[in-house]
Specification:
With about 600 residues, the protein is of the alpha+beta class. The chain contains 10 helices and 23 strands. Strand 3 and strand 4 form a beta hairpin. One of its GO terms (biological process) is cytochrome complex assembly.
């Protein structure tokens, strides 16, 4: 629809491109996505007779099929499939115990599941992330992404270096279209169109009697950024897994730690990690501070957990002070020191029958509940002699509560996590602790297999509850154990070195940006044609084409048409001329012709 006083914008659901090759060219290359290829037949073609013909045919077949498989591997469909398989493959690594994390749990699982254990072992489910099948998926996805990105990048660079295609011959075939007649010269309309499109950040050029413009390159750029970010994330994760280390250390107030493998309570690291990769530093735990809610529904909830430390870097580094808090680690080079746990370490003194001190130390005990009810073992392995002067070993099962409910008010369970009413309960043993056998032991447990319990004069098992400063005497003149008034606290630290984490974070943020750009930015082209009609009046045509149908395209074209129309308004005819077919009989003589609403868009 066209008249001398209207600016018509309409949107069509279908576009007929038959017979107009320039329209096909205008819609081409709105995307850098590779074309899908169907399942081929024979690449070799007719086979020539003889051995030479067979070799040539075989070579063509191998090359053809190789190229076809490469196209399939680098297609978006296969990349998404591999990404889905990678996600599925990671599920067993979260649900099944892994040898790289906890070997003991893996052994317990195998003993408890006589059928599933060997099956999982053969499938590599106890070491998912280093298994052959997971590595194959990982590498194929990596190759697929690279093979997809490289050609699309060169194609996108070519599009950036190119110019918007010339206007199709028949703009009325495009999904969004506007037209009007104006008294302005065609050159003036085209200059106005170049200026308007430039202000709207279109890349525009003059092509014959039309202005061609294009916008939305960030869509394809975002798509490429998303794929590149995935590669960066894959490399960063692989690098981090190969060179990472993660160790735990329990430190009592006043003690220290040096970052060497032998100092850790337990440590796990990647397959390419070596001792030389450890950051050289050391630190001492000066004081641990923990405060708790005293009243209300959150009574006992921690308010403050912080560890005051002094640290130095290298063998001769200057000593510095720092405070480590939950989720606020101490960063030293590539290592991060996290505060992960807390507990109490009662100080005890053990004496033999002659009163000589054979053991004096703060003994860390492990918490059992949120109120820090703690248990552990005290082992006296060397230097102790019994009442007869014979060498012996002592062991004590210890249960500690920082806030005791009081005698006759229940079992040994703490009522509050702070040191309000500390009590230490002890059971005493003597005999062979089993440490001389050379087998590893849990320092927080007591193996009573070769031990005997002390008994009092009445034949009852010796046990007692001690307040700070109190002493439990062993029967028969075998010594004593004293619960000292000095109760120390301990803090559990986790030292993590994971190179590539910064790259992984950057890749994740870039992937989000790229995905958002590829989803919300539309690639579109606009043409503005201005020609002189048969009656000498300039005819202006504007049309737009997007990569996908969108209601915003006609709206944007309507906005652009309104801006151009302001500088090249609709031709005003004499309403008193009876020969004017477009004259409005109801309009007052001499009044300006109003700008009608644009069809398919809001009125401007």
């Amino acid at each position: 629809m066209s008249d001398t006083r209207s600016t018509d914008v309409h949107s069509e659901t279908t576009t007929d491109t038959t017979g107009d090759p320039r329209l096909d060219e205008a819609g081409a290359q709105l995307s850098t996505a590779p074309a899908e290829t169907a399942m081929p037949g024979s690449f070799g073609g007719p086979r020539a007779p003889g051995a030479k013909g067979g070799l040539i045919w075989t070579a063509r077949e191998i090359i053809g099929w190789s190229r076809w498989f490469w196209r399939q591997l680098t297609s978006m469909r296969v990349a998404l499939l591999l990404l889905f398989l990678l996600s599925l493959g990671a599920i067993p690594g979260s649900l099944i115990p892994q040898t790289g994390t906890d070997v003991l749990k893996v052994e317990d699982f195998k003993r408890a599941h006589s059928v599933l254990g060997p099956l999982y072992d053969r499938l590599g489910l106890f070491h998912v992330y280093s298994s052959v099948w997971f590595s194959a998926i990982y590498i194929l996805l990596f190759v697929s992404l690279i093979g997809c990105i490289v050609p699309r990048t060169w194609q996108f660079v070519g599009q950036l270096r190119g110019r918007p295609p010339a206007a199709p011959k028949r703009l009325t075939r495009l999904p969004a279209y506007a037209t009007w007649r104006t008294d302005a010269e065609p050159e003036q309309v085209r200059e106005t169109a170049l200026e308007v499109l430039g202000r709207r950040r279109f890349r525009a050029r003059l092509s014959g009697d039309a202005v061609a413009a294009e916008k939305g390159y960030l869509r394809e750029f975002g798509n490429l950024v998303f794929h590149v970010a995935l590669i960066v994330m894959l490399v960063a994760f692989a690098w981090g897994q190969l060179f990472k280390s993660e160790g735990n250390k329990l430190i009592v107030e006043g003690d220290g730690f040096s970052n060497t493998l032998t100092q850790y309570d337990d440590i796990k690291y990647g397959s390419l990690f070596t001792d030389d990769d450890l950051v050289p530093f050391s630190f001492d735990l000066k004081n641990f501070t923990g405060t708790y809610e005293r009243t209300g529904p959150n009574k006992g909830t921690p308010r403050t957990y912080q560890a005051d430390v002094t640290y130095s870097v290298g063998a001769y580094g200057k000593e510095k002070k720092a405070t480590v808090k939950v989720n606020r680690p101490l960063e030293i080079g590539d290592a991060k020191v996290y505060l992960v746990s807390h507990g109490y370490a009662p100080v005890v003194t053990v004496r033999d029958g002659k009163g000589a001190v054979v053991f004096h130390a703060a003994v860390p005990l492990l918490p059992l509940d949120s109120n820090v009810t703690s248990q552990g073992a005290i082992k006296v392995m060397d230097g102790y002699r019994n009442a007869q002067g014979q060498r012996d070993q002592l062991g004590f099962l210890a249960l500690f509560v920082p806030t005791f409910a009081g005698a006759g008010k229940g079992d040994m369970f703490s009522q509050f996590p702070a040191l309000d009413f500390p009590v230490l309960a002890l059971n005493a043993y003597h005999g062979d602790l089993g440490v001389d056998a050379g087998l590893p032991q849990n320092v927080y447990q007591l193996d009573t297999k070769n031990l005997k319990q002390f008994k009092d004069a009445k034949g009852n098992i010796l046990k007692d509850r001690l307040l700070p400063g109190e002493t439990m005497k062993l029967p028969g003149g075998n010594g004593s154990i004293t619960f000292e008034k000095d109760i120390k606290e301990w803090a559990g630290f986790q030292v993590v070195q994971q190179p590539g984490s910064g790259w992984a974070l950057g890749g994740a943020l870039a992937a989000i940006f790229g995905l958002a750009a590829s989803l919300f930015i539309q690639r579109r082209r606009v043409w503005v044609r201005a020609t002189t009609g048969a009656d000498g009046v300039t005819v202006v045509e504007m049309a737009g084409l997007g990569r996908s149908e969108s209601a915003k395209l006609p709206e944007e074209l309507g906005d652009l048409a309104a801006l151009v129309h302001d500088r090249a308004p609709t031709k005003t005819d004499d309403p008193d001329d009876p020969d004017d077919p477009d004259a409005d009989p109801d309009q007052e003589p001499g009044a300006p012709s109003p700008e009608p609403a644009a069809e398919g868009a809001e009125q401007k």
